[in-house]
Amino acid sequence: MRTLTHFIGGQAVAGTSGRFSDVFDPNTGKVQARAPLADAAELDKAVQNAREAQRGWAALNPQRRARVMFEFKRLLELHMDELAELLSSEHGKVVADSKGDIQRGLEVIEFACGVPHLMKGEFTQGAGPGIDVWSTREPLGVVAGITPFNFPAMIPMWMFGPAIATGNAFILKPSERDPSVPIRLAELMIEAGLPPGVLNVVHGDKTAVDAILDHPVVKAVSFVGSSDIAQYVYGRGAANGKRVQCMGGAKNHGVILPDADLDQAVADIMGAAYGSAGERCMALPVVVPVGEKTAVALREKFVAAIAGLRVGVSSDPDAHYGPVVSAAHKARIESYIQMGVDEGAELVVDGRGFVLQGSEEGFFVGPTLFDRVTPGMRSYQEEIFGPVLQMVRAESFAEALSLPSKHQYGNGVAIFTRNGEAARQFAAEVEVGMVGINVPIPVPVAYHSFGGWKRSGFGDLNQYGQDGVRFYTRQKIITQRWPTGEAVADQSFVIPTMR
Ligand code: NAD
């Protein structure tokens, strides 16, 4: 069995804590490798390497840093197939979907290539007599990212792309469940010309996370994962004086108005609900048809569409989705299905007990559909993160609008309609951070920013885009006056103003 290593100072470094975590192949259910779990001393080693490397990296002009990002983008494209297969073999998502995971991260790298422009400050000439004012953006120093299992390429790149391009050194603590792609990304960054030590990957669990949160040299922490841990990381990091942004869980709703193109909406929602086995924070696991007629028609179409779904191993080019990430997660999803039944929801299609011939031990869950789910049910209130679609029938537009607004999570939401006025009102009033209008997965493009509301996001700056640049840099504002040679004015003891 392979034993994975950390990546510190541009090199593979064996774990020394003596603790390891199993890495499974979800297709077969077998352990395929083990990842070392770092202790505080190993984390400190990475931070010291990063601190050493950061000064020289930040001193390069931004165009030279951008060139490394350009080359990294080229290498990502060159290695796309290899990376996607590796990603699928640990995560379980189908290879085409893994390519999408890498591509969305690559787009953030493209954005980071614009760093000479992105870091430009502002300038005011003649803000007062002989006075000019300007601002600069400077890197923070050593910063860290803690990432979830479900996007092992995209989310690390959301973070280290802008952080490194702006002149920081980065410590990545990826998910211990699929740790190999983050290591390959770091190796490719070195190949692209990044000085050793600027990007370090340290595997670990809570011990490594706490070591990051408590390390005085780490100036900022970016986290993506489940909400309870997001809140914990936010609290502990902020209490230690760090800049922190934490993205949490989700339960995204798709509202279907009676005038929507139902066939198109069903096609869109099938991919959004079941793609990647529902293991996306922008998945659409709740559908809200407005009116009885819409609900009846929609249910019929979903049942037919589910019958055509192909669940398969992640290397199956015809599979719509593959296994979920672990046996524990499979058991958790199935327990939520049982909870829905116990709470009185109508189980229309039951995905429990799904067995794929030839992969009997794989972590597969069949597509599941519930109807007549109600807001009081725990299975509705909590995130399931599996291939489970829940229909919550609404009688009116107002009721449909209130459901995502009142939910504890506020990551994404979508409305399907032909009525521009209704869509506009929905987008303006809904209490959710990212809204799709006839768009099922409204993940903003790389030059906007990503972030949810309520328990889906802690902190005030979003991921990537301009917010990413702001998060990883601090502003300095310089007010300058040069002596003109004229007579020196009298001393003044009042606050200076620009009269
Ligand atoms: P997770 O919260 O279990 O793990 C996230 C990270 O936290 C991992 O690196 C993990 O090692 C670490 N961690 C785990 N337990 C910890 C603890 N007790 N203390 C400190 N750190 C700990 O999340 P996951 O299962 O890997 O990912 C799925 C979750 O992430 C879902 O809730 C999903 O909605 C969410 N997610 C959110 C977004 C977003 O942008 N809002 C994006 C992707 C995933």
Written account of the structure:
It is built from 16 helices and 23 strands. With 499 residues, the protein is of the alpha/beta class. The protein has two domains: 2-248 and 456-478, 3-Layer(aba) Sandwich (Aldehyde Dehydrogenase, Chain A, domain 1); 253-437, Aldehyde Dehydrogenase, Chain A, domain 2, CATH 3.40.309.10. The strands form six sheets. Strands 15-16-17-14-13-19-20 form a seven-stranded mixed beta sheet, with helices on both faces. A six-stranded mixed beta sheet has the order 10-9-8-11-12-22, with helices on both faces. α15 (420-429) links the parallel β19 (412-416) and β20. α6 crosses α16 and α10 (262-274) crosses α11. The chain is globular, with a radius of gyration of 25 Å. The model has no long low-confidence stretch (mean pLDDT 97).
Could you describe the largest sheet, including whether it forms a barrel? Answer: 7 strands, mixed
What is the helix content? 25-40%
- How large is the radius of gyration? 25 Å
The coarse silhouette is: globular
- CATH fold call of the largest domain: Aldehyde Dehydrogenase, Chain A, domain 1
Number of helices: 16
Kindly state the mean pLDDT as a whole number? 97
Gap between N and C termini, in Å? 74 Å
The CATH architecture of the largest domain:
3-Layer(aba) Sandwich
Strand content: 15-25%
How many structural domains in the coordinates? 2
Bound molecules: nicotinamide-adenine-dinucleotide
Order of neighbouring strands in the sheet with most strands: 15-16-17-14-13-19-20
| Category by helix and strand content | alpha/beta
Indicate the CATH class of the largest domain: Alpha Beta
- For CATH, the homologous superfamily of the largest domain is named as Aldehyde Dehydrogenase, Chain A, domain 1
Low-confidence stretches: none
Count of DSSP strands? 23
